[in-house]
């Protein structure tokens, strides 16, 4: 099993390599990657070793080749389509966030239960009622459901998403969701970021 | 240097231990913690070993004692106060998120540059103009600045926060910020969570 921290670092390495490509750099060493993203070069080599041999010892890696490999491993050599359930403050901020499209994730539909939200526009997309879920998921080949509803509605919304065919759930609600074994669930709690700050403020004192 | 992934796991262990305290459980083994949060027991022991000896071999850990240690290491044995700059969709969703207060982080003030936002209420707090920054940071002993403004305003807002005395910045804007060496900077990009999903959807295929 690949540690999640490794997958998140691959994402960071790929963004760094993308910057090198923009700057016209042709080859790079693990030391340079390590320095560029703020980890040890041993960590870079360990992370890449999970996926086979990429570079030549002593010569380093060809930037374009390594970048292509990483994007393929992360599944970013294709586009993914997501659906957002809950067009409230968080859901709207995510719907309009340019960072998703830049990494290959499109928002194919945004649904909400409230009449005041249905019919409003978020960028190019119109907020639709929940009844449109199965149709939009099929039409746009949506595999990822993003849950930004209150805790009380989260499990019911998740069950509907899975029934309608999504394969992965990104849950922002403060509720522990139950999903079948063949569905990937990831919970986001932004307070963990604050705890990393409080750890550093406390530890470095 | 403690790996960031270790700090994030300590946060998860502490939440799990909190649940055990609620359930009246008095002692727990590293195997049980590992099983409860979904990592290996070797990982649990390795993470805890960074901070000294906590349990007795063969007997396990006293839940309340270990919980107290972890909260102290994370700096959560005290409360922290944060200020949010940018009362847009994301800033308002963060201002109202109960998860922050539950982990010991209060939002002491919310500022914005736009006249339509100033004077509106988010929960108990009124959105105020940027001129109030230094006063609110001093009055409420604020150490963390949360940046939820557009990329074009992010560096200027960060400079003002640091001038006004914050010690750490949580940046949501898609801009690479420059901060002095004595200020802790953490960038959040929610698309990384989608990439962990695309990795798993791709890898498990
Ligand atoms: N994980 C984090 O770090 C984090 C941060 C901020 C907010 N949150 C959580 O995200 C969720 C949304 O927060 P928000 O500030 O956007 O809240 P909000 O009230 O602004 O938005 C919630 C939206 O969900 C809709 N909704 C309610 N029930 C529904 C249902 N059954 N089906 C479809 N839509 C439904 C509402 O109409 C509303 O538009 C909350 O659960 C909140 O706790 C999490
Ligand atoms: N990191 C992520 O994963 C992620 C996700 C969503 C949004 N974002 C980013 O978060 C930021 C906010 O997104 P949003 O959807 O809330 O946008 P928004 O437009 O709804 O909110 C931005 C707010 O900032 C205020 N503002 C602008 N200039 C300011 C200044 N100089 N000082 C103080 N306030 C100022 C505006 O008045 C507005 O209220 C954007 O940069 C966006 O790209 C990041």
Task: Outline the structure in words.
- Two copies of one chain form a homodimer.
- With 205 residues, the first copy, chain A, is an alpha/beta fold.
- Chain A has two domains: 4-73, Arc Repressor Mutant, subunit A (Orthogonal Bundle), CATH 1.10.10; 80-191, NAD(P)-binding Rossmann-like Domain (Rossmann fold).
- Chain A is built from nine helices and nine strands.
- Chain A has helices spanning 4-22, 30-37, 41-49, 63-73, 89-96, 98-102, 133-139, 151-163, 191-203, and strands spanning 27-28, 61-62, 80-85, 105-111, 121-122, 125-128, 144-147, 168-171, 184-187.
- In chain A, a hairpin with a 2-residue loop joins strand 5 and strand 6.
- In chain A, helix 1 packs antiparallel against helix 4 (63-73) and helix 2 crosses helix 3 (41-49).
- Chain A starts with a helix and ends with a helix.
- The model of chain A has no long low-confidence stretch (mean pLDDT 95).
- The structure holds nicotinamide-adenine-dinucleotide (2 copies).
- One nicotinamide-adenine-dinucleotide (NAD) sits between chains A (85-91, 112-114, 117, 130, 148-151, 153, 157, 172-174, 188-190) and B (93-94, 96-97, 99).
List keywords for this structure.
homodimer; 205 residues; alpha/beta; Arc Repressor Mutant, subunit A; Rossmann fold; seven-stranded mixed β-sheet; two-stranded antiparallel ribbon; 9 helices; binds nicotinamide-adenine-dinucleotide
């Amino acid at each position: 099993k690949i540690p999640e921290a490794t997958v998140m670092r691959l994402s960071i390495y790929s963004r760094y390599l993308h910057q090198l490509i923009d700057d016209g750099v042709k080859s790079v060493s693990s030391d340079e990657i390590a320095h560029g993203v703020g980890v040890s070069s041993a960590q870079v080599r360990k992370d890449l070793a999970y996926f086979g041999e990429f570079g030549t010892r002593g010569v380093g890696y060809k930037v374009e080749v390594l970048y292509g490999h990483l994007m393929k491993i992360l599944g970013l050599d294709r586009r993914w389509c997501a659906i957002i359930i809950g067009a409230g403050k968080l859901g709207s901020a995510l719907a309009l966030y340019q960072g998703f499209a830049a990494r290959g994730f499109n928002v194919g539909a945004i649904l909400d239960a409230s009449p005041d939200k249905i019919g409003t526009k978020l960028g190019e997309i119109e907020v639709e009622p929940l009844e449109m879920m199965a149709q939009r998921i099929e039409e746009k080949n949506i595999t990822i459901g993003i849950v930004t509803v209150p805790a009380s509605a989260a499990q019911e919304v998740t069950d509907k998403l899975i029934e309608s065919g999504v394969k992965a759930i990104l849950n922002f609600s403060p509720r522990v969701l139950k999903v079948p074994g063949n569905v990937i669930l990831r919970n986001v709690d932004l307070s963990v970021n604050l705890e990393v700050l409080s750890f550093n403020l406390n530890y470095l004192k």
